[in-house]
Amino acid sequence: MSGEREITQQLGMTFQQREETMNRHLSDSVVITTVGHTDTDDSVPPHKTLKRPLLNILDRAITELETRFCQKNLELMKATSSLVPTSGTFLHGALLHPLVELAGTDAGCLNNEILVAKPMLLKECPNEPDLSTVCKTLQHYKAAFPLLTMLHHRKRNLVILAHEKSITYKLDMDEFVREFAKGNRRLTLT
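User: That's the sequence. What structure does it adopt?
Assistant: Structure tokens below.
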């Protein structure tokens, strides 16, 4: 390079060195090693200049791993694995709890549905490894029963039974027997 400068100065020309620019295709890349020209003005060793970008990359990777494999996500993975028909935990109510929370459904209603659906699905699709086949089977039932309705008097009777059940759960049986025994009441056993 110094020979070129001398020649251009002798000829009365100005010597301009080309500016170094970053390739636009590599603007989002991290350069770990350099090939070719290195600046000698820099007093910091190359391994120390690469340390900060490497630590940033490691920090981002660790953060990503922590978010992907946090406790909540692990519970969701277990819940989705309990949806596989060949799994030993197929439609296990306790494992499905994270999905119930995520969907915002009632856990009690879901448990009642599982009690009915699980034996039927195991009977219809005993060896189906794929959930899509099970969904296709359920689609036939949906076509057979497009709309399930309950007559008004049946619904009214269910409400009455539920109300009476809540009353009997609140009833203290010892107190009830004492009150019943106070008078001259007899139970007729037939």
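Residues 1 and 56 are 38 Å apart (CA to CA).
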